[in-house]
Amino acid sequence: MEIIVTGGAGFIGANFLNRLVPELPEHRFINLDKLTYAANLASLRAIDSLPNYALRRVDITDMDGVDAVFEEFDPDLVVHFAAESHVDRSILGPREFVRTNIEGTFNLLEASRKRWSNDDNRLFHHVSTDEVYGSLGETGLFEETTAYDPSSPYSASKAASDHIVRAYHRTYGLPIKITNCSNNYGPMQFPEKLIPLMILNAAERKPLPIYGQGLNVRDWLYVEDHCEAIWAVIQKGQVGRTYNIGGNNEMQNIEVVDTLCQVVAEETGSDVAELLSLKKFVTDRPGHDLRYAIDATRIREECGWEPKETFDTGIRKTVKWYLSNEDWVRDVRSGEYRKWMDLNYGDRTR
């Protein structure tokens, strides 16, 4: 099987490829990635030389480039991770989110539609977010039938891409599946996101900025659990269906930060009170959704998937990874990883 994975050098895509490429040598995985600021090929060193892995440096907003990769590999499966995903960046500069998340998804769908001819043995799997549903009150859960109500340019762009994917199934018969996941965390996440930012700042005794009063609630999903869930849906889910993926770890942001301070203190032999004193409440961001929570009944009943990690086990693994991978962190922060990519890949990233 030929499998195109878009955004495979990003956080979730890299974890997905690192897990599946060695396990499935009979399948070839093609990483189609623009290699933006959040992509890091150092995260894929373990599989880079394997014969069933290939990299093509392509921007999904470039229709000709996308077509060329589809012509070269004639994929049986597309797993679409590639997206601009940081909410704060979308507020400051929404144009790239519209282009990548909407136009880029359209290009991939068009490339698939032109070649697949309603072939049910092929599949377009679209990876999305629970943020498309908007904000919950103090009770309730997001279900697959929950009405869309996005609050940020990021979530609006992902909502639009979800609708386009469904439209291609209903209009053209393109075989698709969609997953909407809760907040991911784990190894190799770019340090602009909450959990790696707090881990690194706590370890370095830097301020721990928390929006508002830290009362916003998110459901936290360990990235390896998410990757297993996606593969379970690809193998067992129904074509045309949407599956919500949650971690069963609903927590306020302030609870997350407090937990991280405790674990970092334990792992580094530090004074937890000193780390907790670094917390700094800052002005809340516009349109900040109060609460997200996932009902994952459908994926459990239809695909047999449940998360393996609790927040306690997953967060300890995550803290240990960042504390023991100082070179990765330093290179990402300094931009040295970009130089490394150019030096080591050169023409191979075209």
Q: What strand order characterises the main sheet?
A: 3-2-1-4-5-6-10
Going by CATH, what is the homologous superfamily? NAD(P)-binding Rossmann-like Domain
Q: What's the architecture, going by CATH? A: 3-Layer(aba) Sandwich
Provide the CATH top-level class.
Answer: Alpha Beta
What is the string of helix and strand elements? EHEEHEHHEHEEHEEHEEHHEHHHH
Taken as a percent bin, the fraction of beta residues is 15-25%
For the biggest sheet, the summary is:
7 strands, parallel
Counting structural domains, the number is 1
Structure summary, number of beta strands: 12
**Count of alpha and pi helical runs:** 13
List the helices and strands and how they pair.
Elements: E1 2-6, H1 11-23, E2 28-33, E3 53-57, H2 63-73, E4 77-80, H3 87-92, H4 95-116, E5 123-129, H5 153-172, E6 176-181, E7 183-185, H6 194-203, E8 208-211, E9 217-222, H7 223-236, E10 242-245, E11 250-252, H8 253-268, H9 272-276, E12 279-282, H10 297-303, H11 311-324, H12 326-334, H13 336-345
Parallel strand pairs: 1-2, 1-4, 2-3, 4-5, 5-6, 6-10, 7-9, 8-12
Antiparallel strand pairs: 9-11
